[in-house]
Design a protein that fits this description.
The protein is α+β, with helices and mostly antiparallel strands. It folds into 3 domains: 12-111, no CATH class; 129-210, OB fold (Dihydrolipoamide Acetyltransferase, E2P) (Beta Barrel); 218-408, Alpha Horseshoe (Serine Threonine Protein Phosphatase 5, Tetratricopeptide repeat). It is 34% helix and 20% strand. The chain has 12 helices and 13 strands. Strands 4-3-2-1-5 form a 5-stranded antiparallel β-sheet. The protein has a 5-stranded mixed β-barrel with strand order 7-8-9-11-10. The radius of gyration is 26 Å and the shape is elongated.
Length: 415
C-alpha cells in the first residue's frame, strides 16, 4: 500500500482532502480506512455506471474490498460481450459528469496518486480531443448498429465492424437496439480514449442479417406427440386451429439458447429481467428501461430484453413497442430458418423469451389494425407451441373476424 499523500494546495485538491477527512474520520489504519472508502463508494457511487478501463468502455457493476490492503479497492466491470472481470478501482475512469467521480478522485489522492487527466482534473481542458483524421468519413452518412439507447446518447458500433462508439443525436429516445441508423455526422472526438460522434439521424431500418450475430443455439429435447396433449373434453369438437397440428403428427421438440448477461445460474436473485420488472412495478420505468438497454448492449441476442422493452412501450406507444418485439423475433428467426418444423414448448423455459417477442409482435399488429400479419403470427405461435400457454387460441377468432383490439381485448395481458 502506498503511503497516504502529503496534503496541500487549494481548489479541487482541498475539496478532495475534505472528502477524505469526512470518509475516514472514525477509521484508524489502512485497513479500516479502506473499509470506510468501500462503504462510501457503496453509499454514494451509483452502479451500474458507464466507465472506462484502459480506454475500453465498460459497465461498472460494483466496488468492493476483500481485506487485502495491498490490493485495495476493486471494481467489478462488465464488457460489451457480457463477460465480467475484476480490476483495481484506481484503474477505473468515470465520466467527468458522474457524481461518483469525486469519490474515486479522493481515493486516488488518499493513495498518493496523481489525478486522472481529463476526469478529476479541475478544468475541462484536455478532456476532449479530435479523433485522428480518417477515423470516420465525415463527408458522408455513417451506418451504425444501435446497441443501447439513452435519452440523448446511444452506444453503437460501426456496421460491418467491431468498434464501439457513443452517438449523440436528437430523436434517440424512440430508437431501438438492433436497428441500423444512417447518421449524417457533424463532429467526432474522443474522451478517455472512447470515440464519440454527434450528428443527425437520417433514417433507421431493421436488417438483422447485416448485424453478423451468432445465431442462438438449439438443443433437441425429445419428441412432441399430439396424442399426449389435452385438446378438450371427450366428445367435444376439436378447434379448427388444432386440426392440422394434430394431423401433422409427432415432431421434434427443441429448446432455444437463452442469453441473459449478468445472470448467475446459481443465484436466482441475480436475474436482471426480474430486477427490471421490479423497477417498473415500483414506479421506475426509466430505471427498468435503462437496465434492459444494458442487457442489449452486452448482447443483442438477449431476446427477453427486447420483449420487456416492448412491454414497457406497449400500453402508450404500440408503434414503438412493435419495433422492440420485431427485433427479438428476427434475431430468434436467425436460428429457426425457413424450414423449421419443430416445436418450441413454453414448458422449456428458455423458449419463453422468443415466444414473448412473438406474442407482443402479434398483439401490436392486431392493435394497429394489421389483421393478416397478426393472424399469421398467431398461427405460427400455435404451431411452435401447441400447448398455447399464452392463450393465443382465444385471440385468433377475433382477429379472423377483423374485430378491433380496443373493442375486444383492452385487458389482454402478455405473459
Amino acid at each position: 500500500m502506498s503511503p497516504r499523500a502529503k496534503r496541500g494546495g487549494g481548489g479541487r485538491s482541498a475539496d478532495r482532502d475534505d472528502l477524505i477527512d469526512e470518509i475516514t474520520i472514525d477509521a484508524h489504519g489502512d485497513d479500516e480506512q479502506l473499509w470506510a472508502f468501500r462503504q462510501a463508494f457503496e453509499d454514494n457511487v451509483a452502479v451500474p455506471s458507464d466507465g472506462f478501463v484502459i480506454g475500453e468502455p465498460v459497465s461498472i457493476v460494483g466496488f468492493d474490498y476483500d481485506g487485502n490492503a495491498r490490493r485495495g479497492l476493486t471494481a467489478r466491470c462488465r464488457r460489451a460481450d457480457g463477460s465480467e472481470h475484476i480490476v483495481a478501482a484506481v484503474d477505473v475512469v468515470l465520466p467527468g459528469h458522474a457524481a461518483g467521480g469525486r469519490y474515486l478522485a479522493a481515493y486516488r489522492r488518499w493513495l498518493g496518486l496523481e489525478p486522472v487527466s481529463g476526469v478529476d482534473a479541475p478544468s475541462e481542458r484536455g478532456r476532449k480531443h479530435k479523433v485522428a483524421e480518417g477515423d470516420l468519413d465525415m463527408d458522408g452518412p455513417v451506418e451504425l448498429v444501435l446497441l443501447s439507447v439513452k435519452e440523448s446518447a446511444a452506444r453503437c458500433r460501426l456496421l460491418g465492424g467491431e468498434r464501439v462508439l457513443t452517438l449523440r443525436a436528437t430523436r434517440l429516445w424512440k430508437a431501438v437496439p438492433a436497428e441500423i441508423v444512417l447518421v449524417r455526422p457533424r463532429k467526432q472526438w474522443s474522451y478517455a480514449r472512447h470515440p464519440y460522434l454527434s450528428g443527425e439521424i437520417v433514417s433507421s431500418r431493421l436488417d438483422v442479417a447485416a448485424l453478423r450475430l451468432v445465431p442462438l443455439a438449439f438443443r433437441a429435447e425429445g419428441t412432441w406427440d399430439p396424442k399426449e396433449e389435452y385438446w378438450g373434453e371427450e366428445g367435444e369438437p376439436i378447434d379448427e386451429w388444432a386440426k392440422p397440428i394434430i394431423a401433422r403428427g409427432p415432431r421434434q421438440m427443441f429448446e432455444m439458447e437463452q442469453v441473459l448477461p449478468g445472470m448467475d445460474p446459481d443465484d436466482p436473485e441475480s436475474d436482471p429481467i426480474n430486477e427490471s420488472n421490479e423497477l417498473k412495478d415500483s414506479g421506475d420505468p426509466r430505471g427498468a428501461r435503462a437496465l434492459l438497454m444494458k442487457l442489449c448492449e452486452a448482447d443483442l441476442r438477449c431476446l427477453d430484453a427486447h420483449a420487456h422493452l416492448g412491454n414497457l412501450a406497449f400500453d402508450h406507444a404500440p408503434k414503438e413497442a412493435i419495433r422492440h418485439y420485431e427485433a427479438g423475433v428476427r434475431i430468434g428467426e436467425l436460428s429457426l430458418g425457413s424450414e423449421f418444423d419443430g416445436v418450441l414448448p413454453w414448458g422449456l423455459i428458455d423458449n419463453r423469451p422468443f415466444l414473448r417477442c412473438m406474442q407482443g409482435f402479434g398483439l401490436c399488429h392486431w392493435r394497429l389494425g394489421r389483421f393478416e400479419e397478426a393472424q399469421a403470427i398467431f398461427d405460427r405461435m400455435l404451431w411452435l407451441n401447441p400447448s398455447d400457454n399464452q392463450g393465443v387460441r382465444f385471440l385468433v377468432g377475433d382477429v379472423q373476424a377483423r374485430r378491433r383490439w380496443e373493442d375486444q381485448h383492452e385487458d389482454t395481458r402478455r405473459v
